[in-house]
Amino acid sequence: MHKELKKAVCRANLELQKQQLVICSWGNVSGIDRSAGVVVIKPSGVLYDELTPDKMVVLDLEGKIIEGALNPSTDTPTHLELYRNFEAIGGICHTHPPNATIWAQACKEIPCFGTTHADYFYGPIPLTDVMTEEQIKDDYELNTGKVIVERLAGMDPMQMPAILVANHGPFTWGADPAAAVEATVVLEQIAAMALGTITINPDQGPISSALLNKHYLRKHGKNAYYGQSRG
After folding, report:
1. How far, in Å, CA of 217 to CA of 122, rounded?
2. Which residues contact 39 (CB under 8 A, 6 or more apart)?
3. Ordered structural domains, the chain, with CATH
4. For a Cys-Cys bond, which of 48, 97, 134, 152 suits 17, CB 3.0-4.6 Å?
5. Which sequence positions are flagged as catalytic?
6. pLDDT one-digit tens code per residue, 4-27
7. Collapsed DSSP state (helix, strand, coil) of residue 130
């Protein structure tokens, strides 16, 4: 069952390794089949060189294992909380790439300094609140999802497919597992560029709203004209 989704989620996880965005077994990608009400996610602690589609774990939206002999990722409750709250999300990625994680550990959102960032993310990459001792002690992974949901209140998650969890690292998402990984690839690039920008000029301000709107909306707006017409 769910053969194609398991293949897609496995491919997306292996792409993290290919893009050098993961070491050891750190990181996980999941995908959801909304019509079937199931989520497929990487198993916990399994090395990427050992991943195959049959090792992926299938769960329902409450976390009950439907298929799979291995334990799901420890971050599964975070993924499920995002899926439950944002219908448009079809895939989620979490890993610890160095540059994006530096910003998360510094508890700083990533400013939108230029058009490379604006082409993909509609504004600065948001940062969650620092989690309280109570949130960490009980249901930590679920509460991680909740602080992400709280921070995204009033935002369109598909216009901002990334967030930094304070003291932790990034989560990204997209229409499917591959898109979630692509968001991590781009996030790590713009995180590195932002670090370089403030190294050269610590006083650099953000991009103008006019330039942000032009670059984001020409690719993602209702009158987008970037790329080839599919008409």
Report:
1. 9
2. 30, 31, 32, 33, 58, 59, 60, 61, 76, 79, 80, 83
3. 3-220 (3.40.225.10)
4. 48
5. 119, 226
6. 999 999 999 999 999 988 888 789
7. coil
